[in-house]
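INFO worker-7 received task bundle
INFO bundle size: 2
INFO processing item 0
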Amino acid sequence: MNSLYRLKFGSLLPAAAAPRSKRVLAPLAALVLASVLAGCANTTYDVTGAVLGPDDYRYRHPILIDQQLTTLDVPVGTEVPKLAPRMVGNITGFAQKYRASGAGTMAIVVPSNSPNARNAQGIARQTANALVAAGVPRRQIDVRTYPAGAEEVGAPIRLAFARIGAHVDGCGQWPMEDQKMWMKTENRSYYNFGCATQQNLAATTANPLDLLYPRGMTPADATRRMVVLGNYQQGKNPSGTYAGLDNINTISGLGGN
């Protein structure tokens, strides 16, 4: 029995009623109470299936945040024990990604027992120098080896670091239940609905931790704040004025009147 019913029922029994009024209203009150309770017992509620949690794409295809391994393979030949100049640019870009991720250790994994193992040792030192030149602290570089067979003539050097990443598992699944959806009258989405959108959102998120909690606010521009407050106190327009933009009526500034 909801509050509305309780309010209506209470108004039938005023606290200051006379004894005769109580005797007259008692049977009526009992009848009203019985009808109200019966109404509460028979009340039904319609629930739309499309808004239930289990059918929501954010529950079905959640964005997962965990540690992911980011790698870059540096090719190593058997003849020239020198790092290619164009590869230095790739290593520099990889180092920038490492610094932006906030990862701890940068691993240089060098092949051993392979025909190019001797050259790999020299190129590994050049790779470490390229990383340091790109801003990676030398103390955070860890050189390791991995076993390579005699048939692996071009076994590469692998750069690797672990970072926090976001991804979605299970996209592209079309269970048999979805294939029979046209036969059903329920307003429910198919299983793969929204999975690609979630995956794209995860892939384009620069800092996956932003999906968990907001960042701290950066300090305001004190100089600009004083100008705005000063104009406001003097009754002036606090917004900025930008010279040369009054006659521009297109987004790009081209093709005006």
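INFO item 0 finished
INFO processing item 1
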Amino acid sequence: MTKPVIETTAMIAGMRPELQDAEFAFVVWPHDKAWPEGTRASCMEAEGLSLIVPIDAAPAGAISMKCITLRVHSSLEGVGLTAAVSDALAQSDIPANMVAGYHHDHVYVPSNLAEKAVAVLLDLQQGAGK
């Protein structure tokens, strides 16, 4: 296991964005219904249970999202990676929904903007490495 990276510039320079093949959707899910196979994340909100599920398990009309995994093992105490990624994508008019895991951060973007988002993040990474 690698040691988590905590320094902002090092996290950005080492993020190595990787686009996942599958498509997902953010949905509100009934508490009494089993989660779909392939569910990626959950969040209990005051309004109900939110899940990130494979697009095929989502209701018609759900927004199709792709996941970009930032391959750096970012520290949970690290500051600035999420802000830098969100800002870079916002500057390119790309909506971003961030999800933090223990080892990596994941950025969900509309499927039709996923390739552009990866290019933006690669530019950000290269700029941090200089």
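INFO item 1 finished
INFO post-check item 1: The radius of gyration is 15 Å.
INFO post-check item 1: Helices lie at 8-13, 81-91, 114-128.
INFO worker-7 idle
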